[in-house]
Each structure stands twice: as C-alpha cells, then as structure tokens.
Amino acid sequence: MQRSKGVNIKNLVKIYTGTTNGEFKAVDNISVDIKAGEFVTLLGPSGCGKTTTLRMVAGFEIPSSGEIYLGGDMINNLPPDKRDTAMVFQSYALFPHYNIYDNIAYGLKLKKMDKSVIKEKVNNIIDLVGLRGMENRYPNQLSGGQQQRVALARALVMEPGVLLFDEPLSNLDAKLRVYMRTEIRKIQKKVGITAIYVTHDQSEAMSLSDRIIIMNKGIIEQVGTPKEVYYTPQSEFVADFIGTANFLEATIKEVKGGKAILDLGGTIIDIKYNGDKGAGDRCKLVLRPEAIQIAKEGMLSSKVSLSTFMGSYQDYVVEVMGQEIKIQDNNPQGRETFKEGEEVKISFSALNVHII
Ligand code: ATP
C-alpha cells in the first residue's frame, strides 16, 4: 500500500541564534542514509539534538546548512505540508471537538479527496490500528494508548513517504509503552513504511529499530543495528548509553592478524581487533555484566563488594585491579553465590569483549 521513501541527510547543521549564550549548535554536521522501509531511531540523552534533527526532516525547523533528501529529491525548501512526511507527536495533537473518524479523515478532507475514497482509506486504517467501534467517540473518551493509535492512524492515512515519531509513547505508563511499541513495530512492518523515531529510551530503541542512530551533543556517535551498537560500541559513550557496560583498562602488547594481545594486570589474553591502536597503547575492554562469570577459579582475581539477590539473577559488584566491575549472574537457583568480602575469580570469553 505504501510508497515508502528513503531519507538522506547530508552535512546537516542547526545553529540556534539569540540564545542567552549567543549561538548554539544543536546539530553539528551530521550525515546518514536511511533506506526505504527502514525503521530508524534517533537515540540520545536530553539535548543531544535528536528532536531538532527530526523537526528539520519534517520542515518545522530550517537547517542552517546541509541538505535533506526524500526519495532522492532535496526537500530543504519545501514547507511541511509539501514534504510527503507525517509526524506522530508526543502530545497526540488530536482535535478535541472532532470524533475519531473525523480526526483521522481530516488531512484527506483538506486534500479534497472524494468522500467515498476517504471513507475507504479511513476504514482501512481504523482496522489496521485496532480502533474499530470507536469511530464516533471523542478523544476525551479514549485512553492514552487509544489516543496515540488515533494519532498514528491520522499520520498513516496520508500514506506519507516517511513517518516521523517524536517520543510518541512518553505520556503512557510503563506497561502500555511496552505494548504500544510492539504495536507500532507490527503496523510499520505490515505497511512497509519508512520510520524515523525519536526517543531517549534505549530499550524502546532496541526493540523497535532496524538501525539506531546514537547522538551526543549534536553529533552522531554511531549508527548500527541494535546488536552492533550493543556488542561493538565504538565509544565509551555508546557502550555506557546502551545497556550497562564495564570498562577494564589494559595495555596492548601486540596487534597482528586481526587480533590484539593484551596485558590485563599480568594476565595475557588475545581479542579480535581491527582498530588503529598498536603495541604499548592503553585501551579499554568493554564487558557486559551478563558476559562475566564469577567462581572460585577463573581468570582474574577479585573481591566481592556487593552481592544482591534480584530473583532472576544475582547482582554483583566486584573489585578487579582497583576497578569496579558489575556482574549479572543469571538464574542463580541451585548454584553457589558469593558474599561481600569473599575472594573470587572472574572470567569471560574473548568472544564477548570488545576493545575501544
Ligand atoms: P530532548 O530529549 O530533551 O527533547 P533532544 O535531543 O531532542 O532533547 P533538541 O530538542 O533537539 O534535543 O535540542 C538540542 C539542543 O538545542 C538543546 O540544548 C536545546 O536546548 C536547544 N534548542 C532546541 N530548540 C531551541 C530553540 N528554539 N532555541 C534555542 N535553542 C534550542
């Protein structure tokens, strides 16, 4: 049904002027290519520039420099209503005095479409988003989740080339957020529409996206699939922002054949590595808490400083070479657990660590 379009962002910059500190560069020369039909998330902490980027694609903000292409056409100079984009807002932005049917039909009526065509399109979308039976209700007679479905339907019915989401689930409670994000993903896949989604919630980004664009202070830190950004973060910022990360300092003894031989406080390990560092350089190993084993015997000596039973896992903090390491020991039932103050050893597989 959808003629989804790719989005190309080239050297995009947004400088806000007239702020208390003079000029402020909210988006600093970012470039990214989004394929037609792809679900891409702009993820980052508050103020990193993700909403500004989305609003420039929508046409609500004018870029200071750079270009935005939709389906290969430059759209910088087009007003929002001529861009073939539709936005789903955090606040839903529904018309309170229109019923659900009329809220969804609004954009099509503006386009002066034939009444029977409008009816068919609106009815199809009502089924797609699961609002059948609610057509005659008013927004204040719907729950938050249902209102967000109306907002989604209203955007989808326009059959835009790309659908833009600005933190659409922020006003919902935690359980509904999780449910609605799977609904959004299901609907997006069914329709095959390109989607750009802004969030600061990493689990939302992981569960929704084909690829995640991680932003920090106006720049792109990394673009990758959820697995790529989780397992091979390219910076400490990304490793820390996506999930929980431990960083262990090490010295590189040698780099050869796609591997680095590391000295980890006297323990020698070799790890897959294709980066720029060489012999003698310091580096950091990124270790996920669930990829570390704790036992009486193992690779590195450590001491338990915190041990907490969490039900599905035992949560540890241990001290290794003067550094604190978090460990998530899953499904501890029936196995030995360790107490604060105990001397233990930790181990990990070279396959589960990544050098930055
Ligand atoms: P949040 O999750 O808090 O919405 P964000 O990553 O979406 O954050 P933006 O809204 O894109 O961030 O804002 C990026 C930076 O630009 C922030 O520091 C913000 O204060 C600033 N900014 C945004 N809009 C304006 C404006 N109209 N005038 C001046 N500065 C602005």
Provide structural commentary.
The structure is a single chain. The mean pLDDT is about 95. With about 350 residues, the chain is α+β, with helices and mostly antiparallel strands. The two termini are about 45 Å apart. It is globular, with a radius of gyration of 25 Å. It folds into 2 domains: about 5-240, P-loop containing nucleotide triphosphate hydrolases (Rossmann fold), CATH 3.40.50.300; about 245-355, Beta Barrel (OB fold (Dihydrolipoamide Acetyltransferase, E2P)). The protein has helices at about 50-60, 100-110, 115-130, 145-155, 175-190, 200-210, 225-230, 235-240, and strands at about 5-20, 20-35, 40-45, 65-70, 75, 85-90, 160-165, 195-200, 210-215, 220-225, 245-255, 260-265, 265-270, 280-285, 295, 300-310, 315-320, 325-330, 345, 355. α2 (about 100-110) runs parallel beside α4. The structure holds adenosine-5'-triphosphate.
Tag the structure with descriptive keywords.
356 residues, six-stranded mixed β-sheet, OB fold (Dihydrolipoamide Acetyltransferase, E2P), single chain, globular, 20 strands, 2 domains, 37% strand, five-stranded antiparallel β-sheet, binds adenosine-5'-triphosphate, alpha+beta, 8 helices, Rossmann fold
Summarize the structure.
This protein has 356 residues and is α+β, with helices and mostly antiparallel strands. Helices cover 24% and strands 37% of the residues. The protein folds into two domains: 7-239, Rossmann fold, CATH 3.40.50; 244-355, Beta Barrel (OB fold (Dihydrolipoamide Acetyltransferase, E2P)).
